[in-house]
Amino acid sequence: MQIFRENKNSLQALVLTGLFAAIIYIGIWVLRIPVPAMVGRPFIHFGNTLTAVAILYLGYRNGMIAGIIGLGSFDLLNGYAATSWLTMLEVVVVASVLTAVYRGMHYQDSKRNIIILGIIAGVTKIFTTYCVSIVEALMVGTSFKVALVGAFVSLPATVINSISTAICTPILYFALRDASRLIIKKVR
Asked: What is the Cα–Cα distance from 184 to 179, expressed in whole angstroms?
């Protein structure tokens, strides 16, 4: 919503940023389904979807901070500390891409635009996760060609996560937007 994108330093926006960070963390921690892969330990979760919603709802900076804190702290506290910096970098890339496209749409949150943004978030995540898988494989000493193949073979969990991101982002965004409009009306 425009209110939180414009007033990114307001107490309300900062509290929502922290709330989104916590929800993102919980969204990964509570529901994660491990998927076998050649590289890394991927799993299906809703952290990416919640991060995309945070970026659309709170704006670039606060949404990105919420995603970095939520996804990054999950990695740090759950055995992925060595590659948590890559996860945080992925959030920066996804936030940059989503914000650039949303800005090009003049921040019009029509159903069509938000669906497109959900799909873009999913596709961007496939690309960034492929690149991260290559870096992870190289970090453990794999040759570049093997890293390319291994990263490609390890994409099924990412594809499932990306499909859920494309589907769930618009649903959650509109539910949150409509609920917050009702709350704001009652407060004023």
From this structure: 9
Please give the DSSP secondary-structure letter assigned to residue 172. Answer: H
Residue in this structure with the two tokens 């936030």, named with its chain if needed: 95
* Rounded average pLDDT over 155-166: 88
- Note whether 120 and 56 are within 8 A (CB): no
Identify each DSSP E strand in the chain by its residue range. 33-34, 43-44
For CA atoms 20, 21, 23, 24, the dihedral sign is positive
Residue 45 DSSP class: -
Give me the residue label for tokens 């890339």. Answer: 93
Task: Give the torsion through C-alpha atoms of 152, 158, 159, 162, to 10 deg.
Answer: -140
CA nearest 96: which of 132, 115, 120, 69?
120
User: Considering the entire predicted model, what is its pTM?
Assistant: 0.88
Instruction: Give pLDDT tens digits for 88-99.
Output: 999 999 999 999
Q: Say how many C-beta atoms besides its own lie within 10 A of residue 100's C-beta.
A: 12
> Which residue type, as a one-letter code, is found at position 135?
V
pLDDT score of 37: 64
